[in-house]
Specification:
Mean pLDDT of chain C: 93
Largest interface: A-C, 56 and 53 residues
CATH topology of one domain in chain A: Aldehyde Oxidoreductase, domain 4
Strand content of chain A: 15-25%
Number of helices of chain C: 5
Helix content of chain C: 25-40%
Number of strands of chain C: 5
CATH superfamily of the largest domain in chain C: Beta-grasp domain
CATH topology of the largest domain in chain C: Ubiquitin-like (UB roll)
Order of helices and strands of chain C: EEHEEEHHHH
Largest sheet of chain A: 7 strands, mixed
Strand order of the largest sheet of chain A: 3-7-1-14-11-12-13
Shape of chain C: globular
Radius of gyration of chain A: 27 Å
CATH class of the largest domain in chain C: Alpha Beta
Strand content of chain C: 15-25%
Radius of gyration of chain C: 16 Å
CATH class of one domain in chain A: Alpha Beta
Number of strands of chain A: 33
Structural class of chain C: alpha+beta
CATH architecture of one domain in chain A: 2-Layer Sandwich
CATH architecture of the largest domain in chain C: Roll
Low-confidence stretches of chain A: none
Shape of chain A: globular
Distance between the termini of chain A: 69 Å
Distance between the termini of chain C: 59 Å
Oligomer: heterotrimer
Chains: A alpha+beta (about 775), B alpha+beta (about 290), C alpha+beta (about 160)
Strand order of the largest sheet of chain C: 2-1-5-3-4
Largest sheet of chain C: 5 strands, mixed
CATH superfamily of one domain in chain A: Aldehyde oxidase/xanthine dehydrogenase, molybdopterin binding domain
Chain lengths: ~775, ~290, ~160
């Protein structure tokens, strides 16, 4: 029986958040601090002919105007990035998209910065630009980066050979079984193409970084980052410093969703601070977030062979990812997500070709799902299409083809601890799939749909944690996991408390500070509960071991006989508090008991030729969604009336937080599904504001929102737990589109499902002519 | 936002005098919600703002002797929303206000600013246009009354002269038995700006439609009345077929704008449907 | 640059300061009074992160000129609840887990508080309408609706208890 684990404890920082006192870097002001405003490219692709900052420089209140020339005084080789070193601190010679940072205006008075930025005159020689991922991958397309330089950060990407002279930054391929033989066995072959659009994270706390040079020649970085350890490592590489000269700290994040990963404002803030020898704060506006990071648009082509009785026997998947102007983590998305493109299905013959493609759009990175929602959009739309064409119930079709335990996934890795069947069953129950369904009438037609997605962990990665018991018996956990709303502080405290016999509310979580908290790969990909959770468990177990040793000396018993309960060591009737144990050990209220835990899961690199590996992921994430919709057949408007989300939590360490994560992810994805869409004209984002890029609001809420979890324990997860942060978002889009199809019989293959798109499809279906006007 | 000077006169004459200095760089400031957006995006960089919040006499909200609803230009949209007088006078106005932007904006934004902005996506102009409302404007040349159908000249363009201010909105009384409806379609989230707004009013006499008024906004550059549709409805007995025909006519005659909320063709479809639905709603509300 | 001295009531205390004419209320509260619950995010009055109460009415601090609060009463979430005690809305938000990252929470709490002042027993639709101008990117909306309902229930119970007592 666990006491702390499995308990729906409110977030530890609850009171700080409802009183507005929680700490965000957004609020940070340092003495002598100056502010920066980025001057951005106005062309999608071009050479910089000239930058004239003289007018801006003369404006009262302006401290400096920084361009690539000044950056070079601090960083000789100013290119950075987690997968490729392709992104300069400020544009060098060339710009690659509208919004590319070209210069930085720094001033003491924020009010003058915008005017000053307007006064920086930049002359460009425009080059041909390309925006569509398919067009960009064609031979003869304008080449965006003449030379591609891989980073050495991730060993798993080392064997991915980028091809210079092309926009295909990276190609991943998987070959499983004998595709041609598979298609030969098929009675039907389905070929369909699906498109996902660009969307963006828009965390409400816009990305912000403060850099402060230290008197000892070091540098302090305060940043709204999901990856403080990476920021330190990458900044140290740029500056050619040892990592210990740089200190990176974070606070609570006002949302992240993947926007605040790797490096964003940190290199520019660092360079500006080092040039000016004073603290510099860079804060993006909401508008600028649209120019900084997006979710990949993607084209997915699926060719699927099916037997008459509804078994998928072969599937060829081709994916083009629109990576934008800089690779960011796109190559990892291309591979790590690419290999799941055939879905959670038992298909004997599979091929996957996944291409990371540069275009002249803002850079794309990870957004809640690491590319998986784009793939699920394709394979779960097609699953429905096939089921319908074969006259099989969509749920039965999935059930029939689902990967069962110990069956090989397309990568060759056996399915273990993955709740594919359990999620399907729970989805069926919550959707009341077997019960009669009101299909509406007249101009209001109702339908329902389901979909399920599979995601692999971003493997192999490392998390290290320290658990520190102080002289008075109180306890702190040192971890570089960033709490951006997912509740990691609370869950890590629950894990430490469980081991140490404490109440989680008494455990202090020390926030990321690379001078203090140990290494963590990053807070991303639903990895923290599993990886950092394990590290914290191990660290806490080490402290428990030390406490038991002290107890065995006090109680004169064997260490195993000492229990830890409510902050006490207990052996039979005898109890001493942790404080007393520490006094006994150190002679007074003093000293520390320190446990260190480190966790790196096993992993086997995929074979470069076949893309196969027997150990491709340390755990599988499974998420399913169901939707009931009402379609207004005269306007095309889709109203989601019920949204069901089921995720496999492995073991829900905090059920309340798990449900909130699941429904939050699903609702976020619902906005992406129905109306959120970045719109471009000649590469320029034309709706870079919350007035024209609308987020899901209170009045868009389905009248029924249901989020539940199943628990198929992960063998190596802490108490069996898996990550859950992205799981709710995986299958929302196809669930809704499948419901629309069920309601009105039209199949939308490109997101989002805007009323106009649906109405056009309805008109086309009815054979009505749509009269274009202008 | 650029630096400017804020002045807060207490008398209208004073405000008009400051405004007449240089209408290009001196702007009136009501609740400021729209102006602040323009200034924050640097589309507007005034030298001086004349806040009207202390000017007396701009806050009336009552019926005059002739039964006209008179609304001072500094009446906040939220006051209009919560006013029992307005609810009695024309419930369609109260209902439309409920989904106009958000509570915080309605708490600050003023009737005068809402009408003077000239943004075709505003919710009240189509209703007021259908109701035959007018505004009183005061300027260097003295006061004048501008019927709403002469106020809106184009996209963000009004017939207000430099230095001229809206001081009052005048809505004539609705003939007994008139009912109305305002429907808006949003293309993106539910709280998005309207992609199309339709206001419809009529009353029945001996089973026949009398004084139909139909106005459309948001899909078009300015809010517009649809006289051809009104003519087709007048004197007819209400029926589904009649309303469908009205919708068809509305769509046929309308010049819609394409933007990121929808193509012109789609907006025309929506107007067609919404005109019919608005009329049905009025009829059903008998 | 035009500046002026203003005096107003801030979370129950009389204060005064010098502001620039073009300064926003949100900037003034953060820069001059360190009230960091007032957060500028969308800068368009759409997200509600900078919600402030001025003379009893909720406004967007990013679209409100600071000089205009001269002589008025200004409240932020820092002033909510009594000394050492949370407001029932805040308690309900905690109990119902009605936030994740917490960035929108002060605005949500203030708006919910205003709603209950105006309408002590709001139904789901009334809640959705009143809070439609507050965005939660973590989409904790269902929990927020539950929290507001619970807070309404609580105030209802409290009133009944009073009337019986």
């Amino acid at each position: 029986m666990t006491r702390e684990v499995g308990r729906s404890l409110p977030r530890l920082e609850s009171e700080a958040k409802v009183t507005g006192r929680a700490e965000y870097i957004h609020n940070l002001t340092l003495p002598g601090m100056v502010y920066g405003k980025i001057v951005r490219s106005t062309v999608a692709h071009g050479r910089i002919r000239r930058i004239d900052a003289s007018q801006a420089d003369r404006l009262p209140g302006v401290v400096a105007v920084i361009t690539a020339a000044e950056v070079a005084r601090i960083v000789q080789d100013p290119y950075y990035g987690p997968a490729f070193h392709d992104q300069p601190v400020l544009a060098v010679d060339k710009v690659h998209y509208v919004g590319d940072p070209v210069a930085l205006v720094v001033g003491e008075d924020r009010d003058v910065l915008e005017a000053a930025a307007d006064l920086v005159a930049v002359e460009y020689e425009e080059l041909p630009a390309v925006f569509d991922e398919r067009a960009a991958a064609e031979p003869g397309a304008p080449v965006i980066h003449e030379v591609i330089r891989p980073a050495a950060t991730f060993t798993d990407l080392k064997n991915l050979k980028p091809a210079s002279g092309s926009n295909v930054a990276m190609a991943y391929q998987l070959r499983h079984g004998d595709l041609e033989a598979g298609f030969a066995q098929a009675d039907y072959i389905f070929e369909d193409e699906f498109h996902s659009h660009q969307v963006t994270h828009t965390p409400l706390e816009p990305i912000v970084t403060v850099a402060e040079p230290r008197g000892d020649g070091g540098l302090d970085i305060y940043t709204s980052s999901q990856s403080p350890s990476f920021v330190r490592m990458e900044l140290a590489r740029l500056l050619k410093w040892p990592e210990n000269r740089i200190r990176v700290r974070t606070a609570y994040l006002g949302g992240g969703f993947g926007a605040k990963l790797y490096m964003k404002l940190e290199p520019l803030a660092a360079v500006a601070a080092l040039l000016l020898r004073r603290p510099v704060k860079l804060s993006l506006s909401m508008e600028e977030q649209f120019y900084t990071i997006t979710r990949h648009g993607a084209t997915v082509r699926l060719k699927t062979g099916v037997t008459r009785d509804g078994r998928m026997v072969a599937r060829a998947c081709t994916i083009w990812w629109n990576g934008g102007a800089y690779a960011d983590i796109g190559p990892r998305v291309t591979q790590k997500s690419g290999f799941t493109a055939a879905g959670p299905y038992d298909i004997p013959h599979v091929s996957i070709d996944s291409y990371a493609v540069y275009t002249n759009l803002p850079p794309a990175g990870a957004l809640r799902g690491f590319g998986i929602p784009q793939l699920v959009w394709a394979y779960e739309s097609q699953a429905d299409l096939i089921a319908h064409r074969l006259g099989i119930d969509p749920w039965e079709f999935r059930w029939k083809n689902a990967l069962r335990p110990d069956r090989p996934h397309a990568t060759g890795t056996l399915m273990r601890d993955a709740g594919v069947l359990e999620v399907l069953q729970e989805l069926k129950r919550l959707m009341r799939w077997d019960e009669p369904f009101d299909r509406g009438s007249g101009t209001r037609r109702r339908g329902r749909g389901i979909a399920i997605g599979l995601k692999a962990a971003i493997t192999p990665t490392t998390s290290v944690a320290i658990v520190n018991l102080y002289g008075d018996g109180s306890c702190a956990v040192y971890s570089s996991t960033v709490d951006m709303g997912q509740g990691s502080d609370t869950v890590l405290a629950q894990l430490a408390a469980e081991v140490l016999g404490l109440d989680a509310r008494e455990v202090r979580i020390v926030h990321p500070d690379t001078d203090v908290t140990p290494y963590d790969m990053a807070t991303l990909g639903s990895r923290s509960t599993y990886h950092m959770g394990n590290a914290v468990l191990r660290a806490a177990e080490e402290v428990r071991h030390q406490l038991r040793a002290i107890g065995s000396e006090i109680f004169k018993c064997r260490p195993e006989e000492v229990e830890l309960q409510d902050g006490h060591l207990v052996a039979g009737e005898r109890r001493v508090s942790f404080k007393e144990a520490m006094e006994w050990r150190f002679g007074m209220q003093a000293g520390n008991l320190i446990g260190v835990g480190s966790f790196t899961p096993t992993y086997k690199k995929p074979d470069p030729a076949t893309g196969e590996s027997e150990d491709i992921t340390t755990f599988w994430m499974v998420g399913g969604n169901g939707a009931e919709v009402e379609v207004d057949t005269e306007t095309g408007r889709v109203t989601v009336t019920k949204l069901v989300t089921v995720g496999d939590a492995g073991k829900a360490l905090n059920p309340g937080l798990v449900r909130t994560q699941l429904s939050g992810a699903a609702l976020m994805q619902l906005g992406f599904t129905l109306f959120e869409e970045m719109r471009f004209e000649d590469g320029q984002v034309v709706n870079a504001s919350l007035a024209d890029y609308k987020l899901l609001g209170m009045r868009d809420l389905p009248s029924s929102v249901v989020a539940e979890f199943v628990e198929v324990g992960a063998t190596h997860g802490p108490f069996g737990a898996k990550g859950i942060g992205e799981v709710g978002s995986l299958a929302v889009s196809p669930a809704v589109a499948n419901a629309v199809f069920d309601a009105v019989g039209v199949r939308i293959t490109s997101l989002p499902l805007t009323p106009e798109k649906v109405l056009r499809a309805l008109k086309e279906q009815a054979g009505e002519i749509w009269e274009e006007v202008e | 936002m650029n630096a400017f000077e804020l002045v807060r006169p207490t008398r209208l004459e004073e405000a008009l005098e400051v405004l007449s200095e240089d209408p290009e760089t001196v702007r009136p400031f009501g609740g400021g919600t729209a102006l602040m957006l323009l200034m924050r995006s640097r589309l507007l960089q005034p030298r001086r703002l004349v806040s009207l919040d202390r000017v007396s006499g701009l806050d009336r909200l009552d019926l005059d002797g002739e039964g006209n609803l008179r609304v001072g230009s500094m009446v906040r949209l939220r006051d209009l929303e919560l006013s029992a007088t307005v609810e009695r006078f024309c419930p369609a106005i109260s209902r439309a206000l409920l989904t106009l932007s958000n509570v915080r904006v309605r708490n600050v934004a003023t009737v005068g600013g809402h009408l003077a902005h000239g943004d075709p996506h505003m919710d009240l102009p189509p209703i007021l246009l259908a109701l035959g409302a007018s505004v009183v404007a005061q300027g260097p040349a003295g006061p004048r009354q501008i019927p709403l159908d002469q106020l809106y000249l184009g996209y963000y363009a009004t017939s207000l002269q430099p230095g001229e201010l809206i001081t009052e909105l005048v809505i004539p009384p609705l003939p007994e038995g008139t009912r109305g409806s305002y429907l808006k379609a949003t293309a993106l989230s539910a709280d998005d700006w309207p992609m199309a707004g339709v206001a419809a009013f009529f009353r029945l006499e001996q089973g026949r439609i009398v004084e139909p008024r139909i106005a459309v906004s948001a899909a078009t550059t300015t809010p517009v009345r649809l006289p051809a549709v009104e003519a087709a409805l007048a004197g007819e007995a209400p029926s589904e077929a009649l309303f469908s025909e009205a919708g068809r006519l509305a769509g046929r005659d309308l010049h819609c704008l394409s933007d990121l909320r929808g193509s012109a063709a789609y907006k025309r479809e929506v107007v067609r449907v919404y005109v019919r639905r608005a009329l049905q709603q009025v009829w059903a509300g008998r | 640059m035009a500046e002026r001295r203003i005096a107003f009531r801030l979370n129950g205390r009389e204060v005064s300061c010098t502001v620039r004419d073009h300064e926003t209320l949100a900037a003034m509260l953060r820069d001059r009074f360190q009230l960091y619950s007032v957060r500028e995010s969308c800068a368009q009055g759409l997200c509600g992160c900078c919600t402030v109460i001025v003379d009893g009415l909720a406004v967007s601090g990013c679209l409100y000129l600071a000089p205009l609060v001269d002589g008025k009463s200004v409240e932020t979430v820092e002033g909510l609840g009594e000394e050492g005690r949370l407001d029932p809305v805040q308690t309900a938000f905690i109990e119902h887990g009605a936030f994740q990252c917490g960035f929108c929470t002060p605005g949500m709490v203030l708006m919910s508080h205003q709603l209950l002042q105006e309408n002590p027993q709001p139904d789901q639709e009334a809640i959705a309408h009143y809070l439609s101008g507050n965005l939660c990117r973590c989409a904790t909306y269902p929990e927020i609706v539950e929290a507001v309902r619970a807070a309404a229930q609580g105030s209802h119970v409290a009133k009944e208890e009073k009337s019986h007592g």
